[in-house]
Design a protein that fits this description.
Layout lengths: L2 H7 L6 E3 L2 E3 L3 E3 L15 H9 L5 E3 L21 H16 L3 E6 L18 E2 L8 E4 L2 E4 L4 E2 L2 H20 L4 E5 L5 H6 L14 H4 L1 H14 L4 E5 L13 H12 L6 E6 L3 H10 L3 E6 L4 H9 L5 E4 L1 H5 L3 H7 L28
Parallel strand pairs: 3-4, 3-14, 4-5, 5-10, 6-9, 10-11, 11-12, 12-13, 13-14
Antiparallel strand pairs: 1-2, 7-8
Length: about 350
């Protein structure tokens, strides 16, 4: 590494600890859906290659993985709700560990961001309220408006909490170092906290305490099942993805974090979209590790976030997708491959495991 490069990114190279997950440096891979699982929700040998190629990163957070059949919204996304799926993930975990990194499986229940034809059981999506998200979902027959969901009963809610708990157990028993709960990007956990997606009047809706109740129950159950120090939680304050409106983001995330903090989770993963005051407030009130994904920022700016104390670890998405040797490129100041957007979702090796290395 050149002297200048060392000065610019030096904050990234010290070890860090997130709960029980020990990291040799502070650059992690962000979760990214790639839609290359089988129709049975199984990751494959190609998945194993993809993650092990990127094992110079300190922690690999996987693509969103459904904790139940009801949790699937997209075609060809993986699951971890049965033994066969867990066995497939175990081979990925073994390969990542052998290559020297750690694996955290992201548990993603999409809720209403779905189309009925994309699930194996053809069931109406579940959501806090029977309000369809605006927008289209890609299906086997092309883009279609997202399905109107069924409002979850309290029995559905209890079952979904159990589904998350069981998926977390399957994940760590398969060799994952932890799980991340996807409370961002407009999916089920965020749907409950959002006033435009959650119009309930029972214990799981209405005031702020009601809207955060379900996410806190999920986080509490998963922490109890596998240990809080193996659990992360991802948020995206202010993101409109999934037709989410957060007009009360400052109050909402203050309440959510106040509820999550006593659990002692390994980390909070923040997708930062520009509200610096809110980010600093979250940093000040969060008691354990903070992983920061500053969308669109270069590596130097992300290193500054660690240097300035805004983040303990940074996560990178498209940079890691297109550069399996990202750490070598950062250290040497080499040019970065650019992601091929046409191959982000679906397909085989092209745009997945065939990005060129510096040595090539």
């Amino acid at each position: 590494m050149s002297t200048n490069e060392s000065t610019q990114t030096g904050a990234l190279w010290s070890p860090a600890t997130l709960g029980r997950i020990a990291l040799p440096h502070r650059v992690a891979m962000a979760p990214m859906t790639r839609s290359r699982a089988t129709s049975a929700g199984l990751v494959t040998d190609l998945t194993r290659t993809y993650y092990s190629q990127r094992a110079s990163l300190a922690m690999l957070i996987t693509e969103g993985t459904q904790p139940s059949e009801d949790g699937q919204g997209y075609l060809a996304t993986p699951g971890i709700h049965n033994a066969e799926q867990a066995e497939a993930w175990s081979r990925v975990a073994d390969a990542v560990h052998e290559a020297g990194s750690t694996l955290v499986i992201q548990l993603m229940h999409v809720g209403r961001v779905s189309h009925v034809s994309n699930t194996s059981h053809g069931r109406t999506p579940l959501a806090p309220s029977a309000i369809a998200a605006r927008g289209d979902m890609f299906t086997a027959t092309g883009a279609q408006p997202m399905s109107t969901p069924r409002e979850m009963t309290e029995a559905d809610i209890a079952q979904t909490v159990s589904d998350f708990r069981r998926a977390a157990r399957l994940a760590v028993d398969a060799g994952a170092d932890g799980v991340e709960l996807h409370g961002a990007n407009g999916y089920l956990l965020q749907q409950f906290t959002s006033s435009n997606a959650n119009r309930r009047t029972d214990l799981y809706g209405g005031d702020m305490a009601g809207r955060i109740r379900f996410p806190l129950e999920v986080a509490g159950a998963v922490a109890e099942e596998i240990g809080a120090d193996r659990v992360g939680y991802r948020i995206s304050p202010g993101s409109p993805l999934g037709d989410i409106e957060e007009t009360d983001a400052a109050e909402l995330y203050a309440a959510l974090i106040a509820g999550l903090a006593p659990l002692g989770l390994a980390y909070l993963h923040v997708v930062h979209l520009g509200d610096e005051a809110l980010l600093r407030s979250i940093r000040a009130s969060w008691p354990t590790g903070l992983v920061l994904n500053r969308a669109g920022a270069d590596v130097v700016q992300r290193a500054d976030d660690v240097h300035d104390g805004l983040a303990d670890v940074i996560s990178v998405g498209s940079l890691a997708l297109a550069n399996p040797d990202l750490l070598a490129r950062i250290r040497s100041g080499a040019a970065m491959n650019k992601p091929d957007r046409a191959t982000l979702y679906g397909g085989a090796e092209h745009g997945y495991t065939d990005y060129p290395l510096l040595a090539a």
